[in-house]
Specification:
By secondary structure, this protein is α/β, with parallel strands linked by helices. The protein folds into four domains: 184 residues, inorganic pyrophosphatase (n-terminal core), CATH 3.90.1640; 97 residues, CBS-domain; 108 residues, HprK N-terminal domain-like (Udp-n-acetylmuramoylalanyl-d-glutamate--2,6- Diaminopimelate Ligase, Chain: A, domain 1, 3-Layer(aba) Sandwich); 115 residues, Diaminopimelate Epimerase, Chain A, domain 1, CATH 3.10.310.20. 36% of the residues lie in helices and 20% in strands. The structure holds manganese (II) ion. Manganese (II) ion binds next to loops.
């Protein structure tokens, strides 16, 4: 629930690669060291390579955030005022007066939500207060009456029993009162004679309530004891006792059962309509039947936005869903600027290096924050992954130097560990065509075209080429379904340092023009190409400029 120090999520791109996961963990570590409540997050499944690195260095997977749309938990308040269903209306009135609440949730003794009561329910009950007789239907217990009237018990009986008779005020003569008394009635009396009271007891009443602490004869008590009749002594006058008894009705009798309630993970956009329909001031928030908070209708109008730091990406299309509803507070990245807009000035650290984790590691050192071995291992893993063990053309000497220093801290042999990690992530294993085609997928706007480019590392390209037909079929289907122009799949042979680029959609001439190849088939072979952002996206962008946006 809301309140306290809301975390800032540090999150990489969709279809997270090792850099996206490890830079989120690494940068969160730096922010935490500087006293910021940063929480590493991810917006997708962890791939095999990253899994290997996390397990090797014994670090937990970051929190999964499927989207940043505001939810009930973000605006709900802790519910400090609750009443129990067996509490009395008198108690409810006090609670409402003190808390100034318009509606109060009602729970059972386990804390499970059973209803809600509003001020208007209470008001209605008072207007409809017809008489004391109606109390039997409301299942009032003797215990409730004793509490409400602050009675002293002179002769006790079963406190938990429900009252069964009417409540009679003995204001007339003994004779006229006896004429209206029935078995099990409850009689309110003031200072009356011994004989009168004994006459009442002989009518087999259930309870005698003596008001204003009036004196009562020992003989009367003896007779009551013999007959099993409750005798209560209260300091209040008869009129007040009458009113108090009316207030000892259990809340359960006037509450709304099965109230409209929400769950913490409900989207605010989904509950707005429900709120408009019912127009209550506030609604209970329930998880597994338990009341966990309250959400008020005013609160959902302007929810506080989630704060996020983007790492390893800056393009909306690659960011976690719902990013438009969140507040980007920083960006740490090493990709092209993809046109992100913010409402306020923010901190951006953008460097043309091989890996976001190179930036994150050096930020630690510049700020004199020590990197623990496990985090150093993860930062190193990301550099090895993004630069394919320094073979990618995106790799700079700075990446290499940083990686060597990190390997020292992590205590691993860089080359041995690196090859083992790359091997864990390479190959198609038991992946389906859809999983292969969506591996490490990123979306780009190139000219007017919406193009998705996925990439998979392999040690043996035959694994991919043998399945080319299935893969192309899936890619065609995918772009039609999602409305993209093209789907490109880079099968990158990390041993040979070459890429087989499979493609579906149009314009195909874009592929031919970008890579100066015959693009009449379904793939082109690109020796020396390993980097999507440096060797695939830029030539495509240049080619669009040459052939124009209308080549389809
Ligand atoms: Mn990266």
């Amino acid at each position: 629930m809301k309140g306290g120090n809301k975390p800032i999520y540090v999150i990489g791109h969709r279809n997270p690669d090792t850099d996206s996961i490890c830079s989120a963990i690494g940068y969160s570590h730096l922010k935490q060291a500087r006293g910021v409540n940063a929480v590493p997050a991810r917006c997708g499944k962890i791939n095999n390579e990253t899994k290997y690195a996390l397990e090797y260095f014994k670090v937990d997977q970051p929190l999964l955030l499927t989207d940043l749309y505001p939810r009930v938990k973000d605006v709900a308040l802790e519910c400090k005022t609750v009443v129990r269903q067996h509490d009395t209306l008198r108690h409810l009135g006090e609670v409402m007066r003190k808390s100034e609440l318009q509606s109060v949730p009602v729970t059972d003794s386990n804390g499970d939500l059973v209803g809600i009561v509003t001020v208007s329910d209470l008001a209605k009950r008072y207007f409809l207060e017809l008489g004391l007789q109606s109390l039997v239907d409301l299942r009032v217990r003797y215990r409730d009456i004793m509490q409400a009237t602050e009675a002293k018990v002179l002769i006790s009986a079963d406190e938990n029993a429900l009252i069964e008779g009417n409540i009679i005020i003995a204001s007339g003569s003994a004779f006229s009162t006896v004429s209206i008394l029935n078995k099990k009635d409850i009689v309110l009396v003031g200072d009356r004679s011994k004989d009168t009271l004994i006459k009442f007891l002989e009518c087999e009443i259930a309870c005698l309530i003596v008001t204003q602490n009036s004196r009562i004869d020992a003989e009367v008590l003896e007779e009551a004891q013999k007959r099993g009749v409750f005798v209560l002594l209260t300091p209040y006058d008869t009129y007040t006792v009458g009113r108090l008894i009316n207030q000892c009705v259990p809340i359960r009798r006037i509450m709304h059962s099965n109230p409209v309630c929400f769950r913490p993970m409900d989207l605010l956009s989904d509950i707005k309509g429900v709120m408009d329909e019912h127009r209550y001031r506030s609604y209970p928030v329930v998880e597994n039947g338990k009341l966990v908070g309250l959400v008020s209708a005013d609160e959902i109008m302007l929810p506080e936005r989630e704060k996020v730091i983007l790492v390893d990406h800056n393009e909306r299309g690659q960011a976690v869903e719902g990013i438009e509803d969140a507040k980007i507070v920083e960006i740490i990245d090493h990709h092209r600027l993809g046109g992100v807009q913010t409402s306020e000035p923010i901190y951006i650290h953008q460097e043309p290096v091989g890996c976001t984790c190179t930036i994150v590691a050096n930020m630690h050192w510049h700020q004199d924050v020590e990197i623990p071995p496990s985090i150093a291992g993860l930062l190193l893993s990301a550099i090895i992954s993004d630069t394919v063990l320094f073979k990618s053309p995106t790799c700079t000497p700075y990446d290499k130097k940083t990686a060597e220093r990190l390997a020292d801290i992590a205590g691993v042999n860089l080359k041995e560990y690196g090859l083992a990690m790359l091997r864990a992530g390479a190959g198609v294993g038991d992946k389906t065509p859809a999983e292969i085609a969506k591996n490490d997928l990123k979306e780009f706007k190139i000219g007017d075209y919406r193009i998705i480019v996925s990439q998979i590392s392999v040690m043996d390209p035959k694994e991919i080429l043998d399945r080319e037909e299935q893969l192309i079929a899936f890619m065609k289907e995918n772009i039609e379904r999602e409305g993209f122009d093209m789907h490109l799949l880079m099968a990158t042979d990390i041993l040979e340092e070459a890429t087989y680029l499979l493609y579906a959609g149009s314009p195909r001439t874009l592929i031919g023009e970008a890579f100066k190849k015959d693009a009449s088939g379904t793939h082109v072979f690109l020796p020396g190409v390993m980097s999507r952002k440096k060797q695939v996206v830029p030539p495509l962008s240049e080619a669009v400029k040459r052939i124009g946006n209308d080549a389809r």
